[in-house]
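With this grant's support, we have settled on a layout for protein records. A representative record follows, to show the layout.
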Amino acid sequence: MWEYTEKVKDFFLHPKNVGEVDHPDAVGEVGSMLCGDALKLTLKIDGTTGRIMDARFQTFGCASAIASSSVLTELIKGKTLDEALELTNQDIAEYLGGLPKEKMHCSVMGREALEAAIANYRGETTPVDKGEKIICKCFEVSEEKIRRVALENRLSTVEEITNYTKAGGGCGSCVPAIEAILKDIWSVRPECEVPKTPRKMTNLQRIALIQDVIEKEIRPRLQSDGGDIELIDVDGNKVIVSLRAMCVACPMSDVTLKGIEEKLRELVSKDLVVEEG
Protein backbone atom coordinates (compact mmCIF):
# COMPACT_ATOMS: atom_id res chain seq x y z
CA MET A 1 0.00 0.00 0.00
CA TRP A 2 1.31 3.46 -0.92
CA GLU A 3 2.24 5.94 1.80
CA TYR A 4 0.48 9.19 0.89
CA THR A 5 0.97 12.57 2.55
CA GLU A 6 -2.00 14.38 4.08
CA LYS A 7 -1.93 16.85 1.18
CA VAL A 8 -2.15 14.05 -1.39
CA LYS A 9 -5.09 12.56 0.50
CA ASP A 10 -6.82 15.93 0.71
CA PHE A 11 -6.43 16.78 -2.98
CA PHE A 12 -7.56 13.26 -3.87
CA LEU A 13 -10.61 13.22 -1.62
CA HIS A 14 -11.48 16.88 -2.22
CA PRO A 15 -10.06 17.73 -5.66
CA LYS A 16 -10.28 21.29 -6.93
CA ASN A 17 -11.15 22.43 -10.47
CA VAL A 18 -12.59 19.14 -11.68
CA GLY A 19 -14.35 19.29 -15.04
CA GLU A 20 -13.88 21.22 -18.24
CA VAL A 21 -13.70 24.96 -18.92
CA ASP A 22 -16.59 26.23 -21.04
CA HIS A 23 -15.33 27.12 -24.51
CA PRO A 24 -11.67 26.58 -23.56
CA ASP A 25 -8.90 28.57 -25.26
CA ALA A 26 -6.44 25.71 -24.81
CA VAL A 27 -6.74 21.95 -24.47
CA GLY A 28 -3.99 19.52 -23.52
CA GLU A 29 -4.54 15.75 -23.53
CA VAL A 30 -1.86 13.26 -22.51
CA GLY A 31 -1.72 9.61 -21.57
CA SER A 32 -4.20 6.91 -22.46
CA MET A 33 -6.85 5.00 -20.53
CA LEU A 34 -5.44 1.87 -22.12
CA CYS A 35 -2.12 2.63 -20.41
CA GLY A 36 -3.74 3.28 -17.04
CA ASP A 37 -3.41 7.09 -16.83
CA ALA A 38 -4.96 9.88 -18.87
CA LEU A 39 -5.35 13.60 -18.29
CA LYS A 40 -7.25 16.33 -20.11
CA LEU A 41 -6.44 19.92 -19.14
CA THR A 42 -8.51 22.87 -20.35
CA LEU A 43 -7.58 26.52 -19.93
CA LYS A 44 -9.27 29.89 -20.22
CA ILE A 45 -6.66 32.48 -21.19
CA ASP A 46 -6.85 36.27 -21.22
CA GLY A 47 -5.90 37.21 -24.76
CA THR A 48 -4.57 40.61 -23.68
CA THR A 49 -2.37 39.67 -20.73
CA GLY A 50 -1.70 36.06 -21.62
CA ARG A 51 -2.68 35.00 -18.11
CA ILE A 52 -4.45 31.76 -17.26
CA MET A 53 -7.80 32.82 -15.87
CA ASP A 54 -9.19 29.35 -15.25
CA ALA A 55 -7.90 25.79 -15.40
CA ARG A 56 -9.82 22.55 -15.04
CA PHE A 57 -8.96 18.89 -15.41
CA GLN A 58 -10.46 15.50 -16.11
CA THR A 59 -8.30 12.52 -15.27
CA PHE A 60 -8.39 8.76 -15.32
CA GLY A 61 -5.95 7.35 -12.83
CA CYS A 62 -4.95 6.74 -9.24
CA ALA A 63 -5.02 9.00 -6.19
CA SER A 64 -1.64 10.49 -7.13
CA ALA A 65 -2.87 11.32 -10.63
CA ILE A 66 -5.96 13.08 -9.31
CA ALA A 67 -4.04 14.96 -6.62
CA SER A 68 -1.27 16.00 -9.04
CA SER A 69 -3.79 17.23 -11.61
CA SER A 70 -5.71 19.20 -9.02
CA VAL A 71 -2.56 20.85 -7.67
CA LEU A 72 -1.44 21.68 -11.20
CA THR A 73 -4.61 23.68 -11.87
CA GLU A 74 -4.21 25.55 -8.58
CA LEU A 75 -0.58 26.42 -9.23
CA ILE A 76 -1.02 27.78 -12.76
CA LYS A 77 -4.13 29.93 -12.33
CA GLY A 78 -3.22 33.61 -12.50
CA LYS A 79 0.15 32.97 -14.11
CA THR A 80 1.19 34.01 -17.60
CA LEU A 81 1.84 31.17 -20.04
CA ASP A 82 5.60 31.64 -19.75
CA GLU A 83 5.39 31.68 -15.96
CA ALA A 84 3.30 28.51 -16.01
CA LEU A 85 5.88 26.77 -18.20
CA GLU A 86 8.48 27.31 -15.48
CA LEU A 87 6.54 24.86 -13.32
CA THR A 88 8.29 21.47 -13.09
CA ASN A 89 6.99 18.06 -12.14
CA GLN A 90 9.12 18.32 -9.01
CA ASP A 91 7.23 21.50 -8.07
CA ILE A 92 3.97 19.57 -8.24
CA ALA A 93 5.34 16.71 -6.13
CA GLU A 94 6.89 19.05 -3.57
CA TYR A 95 3.64 21.01 -3.19
CA LEU A 96 1.97 17.74 -2.26
CA GLY A 97 4.65 17.04 0.34
CA GLY A 98 6.12 14.36 -1.88
CA LEU A 99 4.80 11.41 -3.87
CA PRO A 100 5.68 7.72 -3.60
CA LYS A 101 8.63 7.16 -5.95
CA GLU A 102 6.54 4.71 -7.96
CA LYS A 103 3.97 7.47 -8.57
CA MET A 104 6.23 10.28 -9.78
CA HIS A 105 4.95 9.67 -13.32
CA CYS A 106 1.71 11.35 -12.22
CA SER A 107 3.51 14.66 -11.67
CA VAL A 108 5.25 14.26 -15.03
CA MET A 109 1.87 13.71 -16.71
CA GLY A 110 0.61 16.98 -15.25
CA ARG A 111 3.59 18.90 -16.59
CA GLU A 112 3.12 17.32 -20.03
CA ALA A 113 -0.58 18.22 -20.12
CA LEU A 114 0.33 21.83 -19.39
CA GLU A 115 2.92 21.86 -22.19
CA ALA A 116 0.40 20.31 -24.58
CA ALA A 117 -2.30 22.85 -23.69
CA ILE A 118 -0.01 25.84 -24.18
CA ALA A 119 1.29 24.38 -27.44
CA ASN A 120 -2.34 24.00 -28.53
CA TYR A 121 -3.06 27.65 -27.70
CA ARG A 122 0.03 28.86 -29.54
CA GLY A 123 -0.51 26.64 -32.56
CA GLU A 124 2.78 24.83 -31.95
CA THR A 125 3.64 21.24 -32.73
CA THR A 126 3.42 18.88 -29.79
CA PRO A 127 5.90 16.04 -29.23
CA VAL A 128 3.28 13.50 -30.28
CA ASP A 129 2.72 15.33 -33.57
CA LYS A 130 6.45 15.23 -34.28
CA GLY A 131 6.31 11.45 -34.55
CA GLU A 132 8.92 10.78 -31.88
CA LYS A 133 10.42 7.30 -31.70
CA ILE A 134 8.44 5.14 -29.27
CA ILE A 135 10.68 3.13 -26.94
CA CYS A 136 8.09 1.64 -24.58
CA LYS A 137 5.14 0.41 -26.63
CA CYS A 138 3.24 -0.79 -23.57
CA PHE A 139 2.87 2.78 -22.29
CA GLU A 140 3.67 4.71 -25.50
CA VAL A 141 6.74 6.46 -24.07
CA SER A 142 9.08 8.11 -26.56
CA GLU A 143 12.86 8.30 -26.51
CA GLU A 144 12.71 12.10 -26.27
CA LYS A 145 10.48 11.89 -23.18
CA ILE A 146 12.85 9.46 -21.49
CA ARG A 147 15.82 11.73 -22.22
CA ARG A 148 14.04 14.88 -21.07
CA VAL A 149 12.70 13.40 -17.85
CA ALA A 150 16.05 11.77 -17.05
CA LEU A 151 17.89 15.07 -17.42
CA GLU A 152 15.31 17.19 -15.58
CA ASN A 153 15.19 14.80 -12.62
CA ARG A 154 18.74 13.35 -12.79
CA LEU A 155 17.56 9.77 -13.25
CA SER A 156 20.22 7.15 -13.89
CA THR A 157 18.51 3.75 -13.54
CA VAL A 158 15.75 1.93 -15.41
CA GLU A 159 13.77 1.67 -12.17
CA GLU A 160 13.78 5.46 -11.81
CA ILE A 161 12.71 5.89 -15.44
CA THR A 162 9.82 3.49 -14.80
CA ASN A 163 8.78 5.43 -11.71
CA TYR A 164 8.74 8.73 -13.60
CA THR A 165 7.42 7.61 -17.02
CA LYS A 166 6.12 4.01 -16.60
CA ALA A 167 8.48 3.01 -19.46
CA GLY A 168 9.83 -0.47 -18.78
CA GLY A 169 7.01 -1.30 -16.39
CA GLY A 170 5.12 -3.53 -18.83
CA CYS A 171 6.52 -6.45 -20.77
CA GLY A 172 10.10 -5.29 -20.17
CA SER A 173 11.27 -5.66 -23.77
CA CYS A 174 12.28 -1.98 -23.86
CA VAL A 175 14.61 -2.21 -20.85
CA PRO A 176 17.79 -2.67 -22.96
CA ALA A 177 16.87 0.39 -25.03
CA ILE A 178 16.28 2.45 -21.87
CA GLU A 179 19.64 1.33 -20.50
CA ALA A 180 21.32 2.40 -23.74
CA ILE A 181 19.66 5.83 -23.59
CA LEU A 182 20.78 6.35 -19.99
CA LYS A 183 24.30 5.26 -20.86
CA ASP A 184 24.38 7.74 -23.71
CA ILE A 185 23.07 10.59 -21.54
CA TRP A 186 25.46 10.09 -18.65
CA SER A 187 28.48 8.72 -20.51
CA VAL A 188 30.40 12.03 -20.50
CA ARG A 189 32.39 12.55 -17.30
CA PRO A 190 34.92 15.21 -16.25
CA GLU A 191 38.48 14.34 -17.19
CA CYS A 192 41.53 15.19 -15.09
CA GLU A 193 42.94 17.06 -18.03
CA VAL A 194 41.27 18.87 -20.90
CA PRO A 195 42.00 16.88 -24.06
CA LYS A 196 43.87 18.66 -26.80
CA THR A 197 41.07 17.90 -29.23
CA PRO A 198 37.81 17.94 -27.23
CA ARG A 199 35.24 15.36 -28.23
CA LYS A 200 32.19 16.97 -29.75
CA MET A 201 29.21 16.62 -27.44
CA THR A 202 25.51 16.76 -28.11
CA ASN A 203 23.54 19.49 -26.34
CA LEU A 204 22.10 16.91 -23.96
CA GLN A 205 25.54 15.57 -23.10
CA ARG A 206 26.87 19.09 -22.61
CA ILE A 207 24.06 19.93 -20.15
CA ALA A 208 24.56 16.59 -18.39
CA LEU A 209 28.29 17.28 -18.00
CA ILE A 210 27.63 20.75 -16.59
CA GLN A 211 25.23 19.22 -14.06
CA ASP A 212 27.76 16.53 -13.22
CA VAL A 213 30.62 18.98 -12.63
CA ILE A 214 28.42 21.15 -10.40
CA GLU A 215 27.25 18.15 -8.37
CA LYS A 216 30.63 16.44 -7.99
CA GLU A 217 33.22 19.21 -8.18
CA ILE A 218 31.61 22.50 -7.17
CA ARG A 219 28.76 21.82 -4.75
CA PRO A 220 30.80 19.73 -2.24
CA ARG A 221 33.36 22.53 -1.92
CA LEU A 222 30.71 25.17 -1.34
CA GLN A 223 28.84 22.98 1.15
CA SER A 224 32.02 22.42 3.14
CA ASP A 225 32.01 26.18 3.84
CA GLY A 226 28.28 26.37 4.58
CA GLY A 227 27.26 27.43 1.08
CA ASP A 228 25.42 25.77 -1.78
CA ILE A 229 24.50 26.21 -5.44
CA GLU A 230 21.60 25.38 -7.74
CA LEU A 231 21.72 25.11 -11.53
CA ILE A 232 18.85 27.20 -12.88
CA ASP A 233 19.25 26.98 -16.67
CA VAL A 234 21.68 26.50 -19.53
CA ASP A 235 21.09 28.87 -22.45
CA GLY A 236 23.67 28.31 -25.16
CA ASN A 237 27.04 29.13 -23.59
CA LYS A 238 25.37 30.87 -20.62
CA VAL A 239 25.15 28.85 -17.41
CA ILE A 240 22.69 30.42 -14.96
CA VAL A 241 23.09 29.43 -11.32
CA SER A 242 21.75 30.53 -7.96
CA LEU A 243 23.97 30.69 -4.89
CA ARG A 244 22.37 29.31 -1.74
CA ALA A 245 22.86 29.17 2.03
CA MET A 246 25.90 31.11 3.29
CA CYS A 247 26.89 32.06 -0.26
CA VAL A 248 23.87 34.37 -0.55
CA ALA A 249 25.16 37.02 1.83
CA CYS A 250 28.84 36.41 1.20
CA PRO A 251 30.74 39.57 0.12
CA MET A 252 32.97 37.32 -2.00
CA SER A 253 30.10 35.94 -4.10
CA ASP A 254 31.52 37.52 -7.26
CA VAL A 255 34.78 35.69 -6.67
CA THR A 256 32.84 32.47 -6.05
CA LEU A 257 30.99 32.84 -9.37
CA LYS A 258 34.28 33.46 -11.16
CA GLY A 259 35.74 30.31 -9.63
CA ILE A 260 32.70 28.32 -10.74
CA GLU A 261 33.09 29.69 -14.24
CA GLU A 262 36.76 28.74 -14.35
CA LYS A 263 36.03 25.19 -13.21
CA LEU A 264 33.28 24.72 -15.81
CA ARG A 265 35.55 26.14 -18.51
CA GLU A 266 38.26 23.73 -17.43
CA LEU A 267 36.11 20.60 -17.35
CA VAL A 268 33.34 21.30 -19.87
CA SER A 269 33.98 24.07 -22.42
CA LYS A 270 36.23 27.13 -22.46
CA ASP A 271 33.47 29.37 -23.88
CA LEU A 272 31.03 28.98 -20.96
CA VAL A 273 29.91 32.08 -19.04
CA VAL A 274 28.42 31.79 -15.55
CA GLU A 275 25.76 34.23 -14.36
CA GLU A 276 23.64 34.38 -11.23
CA GLY A 277 19.91 34.25 -11.84
Summary: The chain has three domains: 6-122, 134-185, 203-276. The two ends are 41 Å apart (CA to CA). The chain has ten helices and eight strands. Residues 203-224 form the longest helix (22 residues).
